[in-house]
Design a protein that fits this description.
- It is a single chain.
- This protein has three helices and no strands.
- By secondary structure, it is mostly helical.
- The chain is elongated, with a radius of gyration of 26 Å.
- About 0% of the residues are buried.
- One of its GO terms (molecular function) is DNA binding.
- It comes from Izhakiella australiensis.
Length: about 80
């Protein structure tokens, strides 16, 4: 005769999170910025909304982010001026 299971189901225990406590979004952002600061320099600029729109269009067309587009533009201008 087969064994009968009890009618009260045993609750499953959740698997423990093995990687430690998950980081908050703010902590992830801080770590990302810290990693970038090791090999890059920050540029903060204010431009007219029309210029920003042009930059965003370039990003969308090329599938690149703002940093990559600005890097390409600066390198191109430096080559034209004979500085690169």
């Amino acid at each position: 005769m087969p064994q009968q299971q009890s009618t009260a189901a045993q609750p499953k225990q959740k698997r423990t999170y093995r990687k430690g406590n998950p980081l908050s979004d703010a902590d992830k952002q801080r770590l990302s910025i810290a990693r970038k600061k090791e090999s890059r320099k920050e540029i903060k600029v204010f431009v007219e909304p029309e210029i920003k729109a042009l930059l965003m269009d370039m990003c969308k067309q090329d599938g690149l982010n703002q940093a990559d587009i600005l890097k390409q533009l600066i390198e191109k201008e430096a080559r034209c001026r004979g500085k690169h």
